Amino acid sequence: MFSKIYNRYKPYYKENLHLALPIVGSQVGHTLVHMADSIIVGHFTDTIQLAAVSLVNSIFMLILVIGLGISYGLTPLIAQENGRQHYDECGKLLSNSLIINICVGVLLYVLVQVGIFFVIDRLDQTPEVVRYAKPYLNLLSVSIIPLLIFQTFKQFAEGLGFTKQAMFVSIWGNAINIILGIIFVKGMFGIQSMGVSGVGLSTLIDRILMAAVMCFYVLRSKHFKKYLTGFKATFFDKIRAVKIAKIGMPVAMQYSFEISAFSGAALLIGTIGAIEQAAHQIAISLAAMTYMIASGVASAATIKTGNNFGKNNFDDLRKSAIASYHVILLFMSCTAVIFVIANDLMPFIYTEDATVIPIAAQLLIIAGFFQLFDGTQVVGLGVLRGMGDVNMPTLITFLAYWVVGIPIGYVLGFHFNLGVNGIWYGLTLGLLTASMLLFLRFQNKTRSLN
Question: Which residues of 366-402 are buried (b: 16+ CB within 10 A; e: fewer)?
């Protein structure tokens, strides 16, 4: 039976993986920045500062995914217009996306600044943790603007099937981030030790360089010449802006509902204690890494689906989407086994604190169980996004995380005294709900196309 399935979908496995692997490399780059921050701070400072990283990431990621989600609105439109051979339209969409993303970056910067002074002190967190968190969050907020400029050109290139370049930029960017982070945190080469603020500064420098390189590549490469005939940095058209926003805003909401659920969980855990919060940061950083790999597969599924949708090739659309589901189920099954088997060892990547490691090890077992659900729900979102179906999936994500996940996690954690484990059980149920409902939505939508 397995050989029959493999032979049927073999061409689609190869196409999807060829497209997905470079995207995975660049998607993982976003997580590696925060993962590297956690590792550097965990090894070169103390548990309080690691808890500060957890608090900041839980807040910042909630803001950041709004910008990332809006930037993702460009990709399916580019893929569809390329499928229709409307090359001039691709450049016009890029112009509008660039203006939208810069404006969104500035607005998100202002939003974070307001949050630093009016929200973070009112979250019932350990005062020492908050003191270290503020300057780190301040630096990350500035980095939103160059990151969204990078995203604009990245999503444009990937929508046209050019996925390797963004991966290389992300790899070099992360190498620079790690090197500078260690120098700034430890205080090397005559630079005074900056503690947790050091990784914030290294991240800002990294994202400025990445934006500059990706922009230069797209605007100067011969590969994009025919697609840039309609591009002009100051060109703004209301109709095209609305098209981008109609996809980008719901995508931003989808990511926001999921990430805010995990951010909400982090804040709930923070009320339990700094040790539990540090353990949560370790487990969620590792789970986020596999999620971003799944997100790369989902982005490839968006591109292939959008391209087939633009060509009205619905049979290939469905087969390609199912092949993406197969790939992610196989990968997440492997990571689930690793999380469960190596749960006692993996926390040592971040810390040697004997009070944090046992709690993080327990959370990694739970993370192992929700790997399959996390992977299939993000691929489901990617496939539906390629068809331009974003509104119902947005409602599904809200129901899964904020009607099922967080409420159940709160009840299990605090009323049934399961603590941090109970909160993670709730998150697992939320992911299960999302994955099932999104797959059913995919089945209904693709059947109606034939």
Answer: bbbbbbbbbbbbbbbbbbbbbbbbbeebbebbbbbbb
